[in-house]
Amino acid sequence: MVNIMLCGCRGKMGHVVADCVAAREDCRIIAGIDVSDGPELGFPVYRTPAEAAEKPDVIVDYSHPSSLEGLLSYALAGKIPLVIATTGYSGEQIAAIEAASKEVPVFFTANMSLGINLLAELARKAAQILGGQFDIEIVEKHHNRKLDAPSGTALMLADAINDELGGGETYVYDRHSVRRKRDPKEIGIHSVRGGTIVGEHEIIFAGRDEVITLSHSAASREVFAVGAVNAAVFMKGKAPGLYRMSDLIAAAE
User: Fold this and answer.
1) Quick check: is 176 catalytic?
2) Are 109 and 115 in contact (CB under 8 A)?
3) Residues 64, 79, 125, 146: which is the catalytic one?
4) CA nearest 133: which of 196, 207, 189, 59?
5) Which residue spans within 85-225 are E strands per DSSP?
6) Do 140 and 150 touch, CB atoms closer than 8 A?
7) Given 12, 15, 125, 142, the catalytic residue
8) Which helix or strand (DSSP H or E) is residue 220 part of?
9) Does the annotation mark 142 as catalytic?
10) For residues 62-77, b (16+ Cβ closer than 10 Å) or e, as one string?
11) Distance between CA atoms of residues 107 and 101, nearest Å
């Protein structure tokens, strides 16, 4: 049995994660962390991890980037594995996550969906074959309440492609202010916000007289919650280090 502390338990994703855990027999939530008040959730809820009386096997974070410092301090002090599912971190915060992973096991990915991570691998393969001959554009769509743009997933996909191409690509987020031809070394990244779109990502490889498109669409938040809970079960007892979805997939093979 894996005992989980759920940070951001009163948020939309927190509720979905709690429902996923309730349907399983290999894990349970023993404590929640959230700054908001609300109805009882079936487990004690605290405002900060430091206030919790319970010590979890793993922490799952679906909260807000502003909570990171306290969360890392708590995980480091207790040597507790951490699954970070929150997005929108700054470069300094990502560096802090990577530094913490040298002392505690940290599972960190821009997207918890198995399908999205497969999309990233397909994008790598496409870039390997088409790179230098095709222009590459990424379009991401999310609901109108999402705060960060572009999405962490779009940047994850761009990074996967850029890494495959040798790291020399430039990310372009807005072209309206500059009148010039597209540079072959650009990766265009475009954001759409509207309605209740859960998450859609499209990678366009546009060549001469042909276009190849790779895409993923999430129909509900449950796909991300399932990935986070699977990661939590996977992380119990792991050695310090930075873990990705590829590690979880490899362990399941």
Assistant:
1) no
2) no
3) 146
4) 207
5) 105-108, 135-142, 170-172, 186-193, 199-207, 210-218
6) yes
7) 142
8) none
9) yes
10) bbeeebbeebbebbee
11) 9
Q: Which helix (H) or strand (E) holds 54?
A: none
All residues at 6 or more sequence positions from 238 whose CB lies less than 8 Å from its CB, including other chains: 81, 105
Residues 56-111 have pLDDT tens digits of: 999 999 999 999 999 999 999 999 999 999 888 899 999 999 999 999 999 998 88
The span from the CA of 246 to the CA of 241, in Å, is 14
Cβ atoms of residues 152 and 142 within 8 Å: no
- Cα distance between residue 157 and residue 140, in whole Å: 10
Per-residue buried b or exposed e for 148-183, using 16+ beta carbons within 10 Å of the residue's own CB: eebbbbbbbbbbbbbebbeeebeebeeeeeeeeeee
Measured distance CA(110)–CA(88) in Å, rounded = 9
Q: Is 36 exposed, middle or buried (0-12, 13-18, 19+ CB in 10 A)?
A: exposed
Smallest CA-to-CA distance from 66 within 120, 122, 8, 24 is with 8
Note the pLDDT tens digit of each residue in 37-61: 888 889 999 999 999 999 999 999 9
Nearest residue to 170 via CA among 153, 154, 183, 160: 183
